Amino acid sequence: MTSRPRSRTALSTAALLTLALGATACGARGAGADGGGEDGYTIKFSHVVTPDTPKGQAAERFAKVVDETCGDQLSVEVYPNSELYGDEDELQALQSGAVQMLAPASAKFTTIAPQLQVLDLPFLFDSVEDIPKVVAPDTAAGKAIYENPELAKRGIKVLGLWDNGLKQLSSDDAMTQPSDLRGLRFRIQPSDVLRSQFEEWSAETTPMAFAEVYNALQQGVIDGQENPYSNIESQNMHTVQKHITESDHGYIGYVHTINKEFYDSLPAELQTCVDDASAEAATYNREVAAKLNDEAKQVIEKAGGTEITELTDEQRQVFEDAVVPKVWKQYADVIGQDLVDELLAQR
Ligand code: LMR
């Protein structure tokens, strides 16, 4: 029988709990009050996808670069696939210092930093090539993320933005026009923008943690979901979905974050080393993301149980016209009127 995650490791929940509880608030190995113990520092990096996805690979790369370049005073432990913390508790774990590093999809920050929903705006990007220029740190959208006051207030420091790629729709029904979604219930990340997007397409929504999606699809609690191919395939969602519509309608990007108190406790040269490793992981992430999504699509095609429909430009336009500019304008007060106006003007 197909199990949900392809790369779950053998660590038991009890062992993981012990690991989590054993973390000191600031990640120091050894007992330094300022976060620096004589044994050095450990970054526990928790995330919710498998190691072979764009985020999973970037996390591994970050750990490797730290290992190779930061000396033996700093080490990184990566916990993939919601093994240590999942969507429901990872942001709390970051703020309390139970883990030092995360890279949640921007939508996961909706409650604490609603402006990050800018990245959920449907059809913000026409293709993955558009992503770097729209969300560079010096653009209006980039500043909303990198300089977000709500994150800073909660002691969350932004190191970078990683991509997965563009989202596709999956369900048991063929979907070539918004009305095909009528009556279907889609799992969404906890974002009001995403809820409105689906409502404009006549669908219903249920917010749900990523780790629950496979089971919820299998048991019919939900009918469909949206994700890039790499997330669909690595969680085996395609094995319980008869149709995927390649709509490229939305973006999943990851905010690479570190607990600021922990970061500030690091000696200056280790801070620089973390910054450099994060930048290198971001570069690597952009190099591999498209390839990993292409490969995942091929795996799904070969598996043969899911029909993939690539929308024509005209069909995609109908989906787009139903939500742009309507949903964008609906959330201008949350995202920022100037930012939404600027993004609309760029179209
Ligand atoms: C999802 O919840 O669908 C994604 O954000 C998971 C991820 O981290 O890619």
UniProtKB/TrEMBL annotation:
Residues of the signal peptide: 1-25
Gene Ontology CC entries for this record: outer membrane-bounded periplasmic space
Record key words, sorted: Signal, Transport
Keyword Signal part of the UniProt annotation: yes
Gene3D superfamilies reported for this sequence: Bacterial extracellular solute-binding protein, family 7
GO biological process entries: transmembrane transport
Record InterPro entries: DctP_fam, TRAP_DctP, TRAP_DctP_sf
PROSITE patterns found in the cross-reference section: PROKAR_LIPOPROTEIN
Family: Belongs to the bacterial solute-binding protein 7 family.
Protein name from the UniProt record: DctP family TRAP transporter solute-binding subunit
Organism: Nocardioides iriomotensis
